[in-house]
Amino acid sequence: GSRYFSADIEKGASRMDATRFVLPPRRQSDPQDASPQFPPTFQRPVVPPATLQRPHLPPNALGSATNSGQGGTPHGAWPGNAVGLPSHCMGTPQGMGSTPRGLPNSFGVDPRTPIARAFQTPVAATQPLEPIRMARTLRILTFNVWFSDYEMPNRMKSIGNIIGRRRPHVVALQEMKPHIWAQCLKSEAFQQYHWTTAPDAQYYTMIGSRVPFATQPRRTRYPQSQMARDFLATVIDFRDPELPPFLLGVSHLESCDSAHERKCQMHEVFQQMDSFDGEAVFCGDTNIDEKGVGNSQPDGVINLPFPWVDPWELLHPGDPGYTHDVELNGMLKRKDKWAREARLRTRFDRFWLRLKRYRPVSIELEGNRPLRDYKDADGHPVWPSDHFAVLLTLQAGTPPLCA
């Protein structure tokens, strides 16, 4: 069981209905992976009888994705009813009513609408993929891109440059918005990935992969979230015997004075990911404030459930690894009054790993310097985001740090 959440949450936990999350069979021409065939399940938490009020999106807000022309319920879509979730983690977000039976997802999107059809089809890479040297290493980048319009085009160009320079196999993004995504797609670096599609929300998470997704990406709304936060997951399989497939989960946990909600969301993350039998990687903006520097409710020390590990703590013991830092990020200090007044220096952005066939060999910060040779109209330096990115490198075929 998870040791990081309070006993009353653990006591209130109940079993969830499970939905199969199975890897497609390999073609005869594909290299045979030595790993056993996964019969993994992916569990879905209860959605309270509710339909969320859908935020307004202007026509064509999602760009070319709205012209996908595909309809119907996506493969592997979850039914609208399920049972089980820690009772203390239940909440009633504003604007919720009754949920018709059989909705394709927990956002209450009618599958017959054009905007729903756009959400059901991941965005394929539009540029020829550059060959990847699969030298038994795998790179994953997580980046909260900041939803602000401040210097947005130049910041997104800079993030594209980071992706193009470091060439991660997989990218996880948080705080994406439709008009920001349209700007990102102008970068050739973004065009070389297959991307998950957007939910009907004001801002959201996305996953980009250099290969098509092995399973339909699934997005689960946290029922207790007041900020429309969710959990996005898919299986990544490079069809390479030296790179085992893995489940990638991405999230942007509840912000600010929401320590209890974050613990509930972490509980859901580990429950869902532990239903998958293979390699598992979680990353994203956790908003964890262990000492309560910026929040009145400190999260306290996060003790991950065995055998999950935090690679930053393993590879950089004693290094705080701040990813939201008013001392180093002058743009954050100027633009965020809350962070400035709290003198905020925290490691919001994290990786958590449950691995047997990979080993973390390096983890480093990216985007922690201002844009070169560029300043805003007032002469201030500009950073790619208010967060720093985290780049993790895994090596396959080596003994794990924690078996």
Automatic annotation (TrEMBL):
<keyword id="KW-0378">Hydrolase</keyword>
<keyword id="KW-0539">Nucleus</keyword>
<dbReference type="Pfam" id="PF03372">
    <property type="entry name" value="Exo_endo_phos"/>
</dbReference>
<dbReference type="GO" id="GO:0006302">
    <property type="term" value="P:double-strand break repair"/>
</dbReference>
<protein>
    <recommendedName>
        <fullName>Endonuclease/exonuclease/phosphatase domain-containing protein</fullName>
    </recommendedName>
</protein>
<dbReference type="GO" id="GO:0070260">
    <property type="term" value="F:5'-tyrosyl-DNA phosphodiesterase activity"/>
</dbReference>
<feature type="compositionally biased region" description="Basic and acidic residues">
    <location>
        <begin position="8"/>
        <end position="18"/>
    </location>
</feature>
<keyword id="KW-0540">Nuclease</keyword>
<dbReference type="InterPro" id="IPR036691">
    <property type="entry name" value="Endo/exonu/phosph_ase_sf"/>
</dbReference>
<feature type="domain" description="Endonuclease/exonuclease/phosphatase">
    <location>
        <begin position="141"/>
        <end position="387"/>
    </location>
</feature>
<dbReference type="GO" id="GO:0004518">
    <property type="term" value="F:nuclease activity"/>
</dbReference>
<dbReference type="InterPro" id="IPR005135">
    <property type="entry name" value="Endo/exonuclease/phosphatase"/>
</dbReference>
<dbReference type="GO" id="GO:0046872">
    <property type="term" value="F:metal ion binding"/>
</dbReference>
<dbReference type="InterPro" id="IPR051547">
    <property type="entry name" value="TDP2-like"/>
</dbReference>
<keyword id="KW-0227">DNA damage</keyword>
<keyword id="KW-0479">Metal-binding</keyword>
<dbReference type="GO" id="GO:0005737">
    <property type="term" value="C:cytoplasm"/>
</dbReference>
<feature type="region of interest" description="Disordered">
    <location>
        <begin position="1"/>
        <end position="108"/>
    </location>
</feature>
<dbReference type="GO" id="GO:0003697">
    <property type="term" value="F:single-stranded DNA binding"/>
</dbReference>
<keyword id="KW-0234">DNA repair</keyword>
<keyword id="KW-0460">Magnesium</keyword>
